[in-house]
Amino acid sequence: MIKLPEDGNITGRDIGEAEMTLLKQVIESGTLNATKGTMVKKFTKTFAETYGVAHCHATTSGTASIHTALAVVNPEPGDEVISTPITDMGGITPILYQNAVPVFADVDPYTLNITADTIEPRLTKRTKAIIVVHLFGKPADMDPIMALSRKYNIPVIEDCCQAYFAEYKGRKVGTIGHIGCFSLQQGKHMTTGEGGMVVTNDPDMERRARLFIDKAWGYGDPRPDHYFLALNYRMTEFQGAVAYAQLGKVRKVVENRRRTALKLTDMLKGIKGLYLPESTPDSVHVYWKYPLIIDTDHFGHDVMEFSAELKSKGIFSAPRYIQKPAFMCEVLRDKRTYGRSNCPYDCPKRDGEKEIVYDTKSYPGTMKALEHVLVLPWNEFYTDEHVGYIAQSIKDVIKGFGK
C-alpha cells in the first residue's frame, strides 16, 4: 500500500518559505488590515494581470465571492437565479441572502455541468442571473450559454472555484461571462485556507463589487457614504500574503495536476464501464479532482462498493460527490430561510408567480450523475508512482468484482 499525499495537509500542498517570508513582512509591518496594507492590493493587481482581466477584488471566501457577484447583479426580492444542483451549498445560499429564489438546471450526466439546453427551459421573466459552475475543473460549454445570455439579456456568473486556468476555446473560464468567482479554500488549486476573488472586465460591475465587499463605503469618492446594504468581506493581509505567494506557484500546480491526471486517463483507457474525464479538443480540464463515471450495471456493484474497496487500499474517494442534489437539502427543501416566513419563496413580491417545486423527476441527468460518479482525490504532489498505484488499485477492484 502506498500512502497518497493529501490536500488537507502539507503532504499535498505547495506551501513553504515563500509564504513564510511574506507573512513575516506583514507581521513586521504591523498592518494586518487590507484597507491600509499592501499584500492584498499586490495580489489582486497581479492576479488580474496574470489572468488577463481588467479588475480583481479579494473576498473572505468562495461563498463571499458568489455573494458579491449576485449583489452586483442586484436582483429584486423574489427574482430567480439559475444554478446547478451539483455544487457546494456555499454557491447557492448567497442567492437566498440576496432574497432571490434558487432555480436549478439539470446537468449532463457525464460532465456534471449544466448546459444551454438544460438552462433554457428554466428561464422565466423573473430570471436575473445564471451561475455556471465549471465542476471539477472541466469547463462548461460556454458559447451556447452566452448565446442565451445575449438572447434574454441575463448576466452570467462563472463559478471557477474548482477551475483555475481552465480554458474554453482559448479563453480562460471566468473571463467569458460577466463576472468570475474563485475560491482559495484549503483544497483548491491555490489556497489561503479560506478566501476568494471576483474578476470582471466591466467597470460598473467592478465598482459595485468593490463597494459590496467593504460595506458599500465609497473610499476615495468626493463625498463617500454607505450607498447600499452590504457586508464586510475584506480579505486580511495574512491571506493576501499567502495568496500572493501561491499565485507564483499556481501555473505549476495546474500543470502537475493535468499531467498526472492525463496519465491516469491513459492507464485506464479501454476499460469497459468507465467514463474518464478528458479534455475536449476545444477545452482544457484542470482536474481539481478526478471524477470517474462508473457503469454500475456493467460491474454489478454501486459506487459505494467501489469506494469501500479503494478505501481498503488507502485511496479515500468520494462516492456520489454530494450525497443528494442541493435542492433536497433541508434549507431548500423545507424553505428554512428567514424566521418562519419562507421568503423569498413565499412573499408578496411573488404573488401570482408559479410556485417553485423541486422534483427529482425533473432532474434525470442529476440523479444519474450522482448515482454513477466516484470522485478520486487529486493534488499537485502526485507522482507517476502514485498514479500507477491508483490505476492498478482500480483494476484490482474491477478484477475482484469479476469484470
Brief rundown of the structure:
The chain has a seven-stranded mixed β-sheet, sandwiched between helices. Strands 10-12-14-13 form a four-stranded antiparallel β-sheet. A three-stranded antiparallel β-sheet has the order 7-6-11, with no helix packed on it.
Task: Describe the SSE topology.
Elements: H1 17-29, H2 39-51, E1 55-59, H3 62-73, E2 80-83, H4 93-97, E3 101-104, H5 116-119, E4 127-133, H6 142-152, E5 156-159, E6 167-168, E7 171-172, E8 179-183, E9 196-200, H7 203-213, H8 237-247, H9 250-268, E10 274-275, E11 283-284, E12 290-294, H10 296-299, H11 303-311, E13 318-319, H12 330-333, H13 364-372, E14 373-376, H14 384-400
Parallel strand pairs: 2-3, 2-4, 4-5, 5-8
Antiparallel strand pairs: 1-9, 6-7, 6-11, 8-9, 10-12, 12-14, 13-14
Helix pairs in contact: 1-8, 2-8, 3-7, 9-14
Quick tags:
single chain, 403 residues, alpha/beta, Aspartate Aminotransferase, domain 2, seven-stranded mixed sheet, four-stranded antiparallel sheet, globular
For the terminal residues, how far apart are their CA atoms? 22 Å
Number of strands: 14
Numbering strands along the chain, what is their spatial order in the largest sheet? Answer: 1-9-8-5-4-2-3
The CATH architecture of the domain at 10-249 comes to 3-Layer(aba) Sandwich
**Cα-atom radius of gyration:** 22 Å
Overall geometry: globular
CATH topology of the domain at 10-249: Aspartate Aminotransferase, domain 2
Judged by helices, strands and strand pairing, the structural class is alpha/beta
pLDDT under 50 segments (min length 5)?
Answer: none
Percentage of residues assigned to helices = 25-40%
**CATH class descriptor of the domain at 10-249:** Alpha Beta
Q: How many helices in DSSP terms?
A: 14
Report the sheet with the most strands, covering strand number, pairing sense and barrel closure.
7 strands, mixed
**How much of the residues is beta strand, in percent?**
5-15%
Could you state the order of secondary-structure elements as H and E? HHEHEHEHEHEEEEEHHHEEEHHEHHEH
Average predicted local confidence, pLDDT: 97
The CATH superfamily of the domain at 10-249 is identified as Type I PLP-dependent aspartate aminotransferase-like (Major domain)
